[in-house]
Amino acid sequence: MSDVLVQRDDAVTTITMNRPQRRNALSREFLLALTEAFREAGRTDALGIVLAANGPVFSAGHDFADMAGASHADVRGLLQTCAELMRTIQAVPQVVVAQVHALATAAGCQLAVTCDLVVASENAGFAAPGGKGGWFCHTPMVAISHNVGRKRAMEMALTGDVVDARTAYEWGMVNRVVPAAELEKATRDLLDRATQGSPRSKALGKQAMYAQLDRTEADAYTYAIEVMAASSQTPEAQEGMTAFLEKRRPQWPA
Predict the structure, then answer these.
(1) How many CB atoms lie within 10 A of CB 7?
(2) What mean pLDDT value characterizes the chain?
(3) d(CA 31, CA 28)
(4) What is the pLDDT at residue 253?
(5) In whole angstroms, how large is the CA radius of gyration of the chain?
(6) Which of 21, 79, 188, 189 is surrounded by the most beta carbons within 10 Å?
(7) Angle at 209 between CA 208 and CA 211, to 5 degrees
(8) Is 5 helix (H, G, I), strand (E, B) or coil?
């Protein structure tokens, strides 16, 4: 059985981590397989991607079997491989929703919160446990700190405690928290709403959102003005405006 399962259902591709015997730990091979699955999905006409997982946890983070005793260069390479997966998730044109059914720790938490949107079961939890041990969660905290405030990020990093799903929602890591039995439906409902409109416009919008997030407000406006002005000339933008004025449903170009 493959460690990464890919299923297409109408306009949605579901990528499922299927390494339950290792708690979906992110080995080098697993990271590469996930990255390739996202790249392949990104090249299709799917409108959205769901990242799900099988087993008792969403992901336990890096696989220490890869890292214990590894050289400085090998560990750096593994972390760069992980970062490439994160960049790929945010670079694909589709909306990516993490469907988190259980615990997501360290790089597993990084993976979940890197997705564009996150729907979590009430049974889910999020943690950067390096603060409890001897190897701090430096790279997972990049993604986590970009989603929560500084003090909350420091609390997660320093204590290593598990943050329950409701708290993760309040802190901004999660978009929805639902009972476990409703997780798949709630994920699909949010994805359906997030994929309305022109796919090409959505892809450009996603790219621009990530590009402006870490800029100063003035620089963000400068960048966003240029992108929005240029995108106003696309067939999708013109069709959207015309349809609004003519009080009809837009017909998006193929």
Answers:
(1) 11
(2) 95
(3) 5
(4) 79
(5) 19
(6) 188
(7) 60
(8) strand
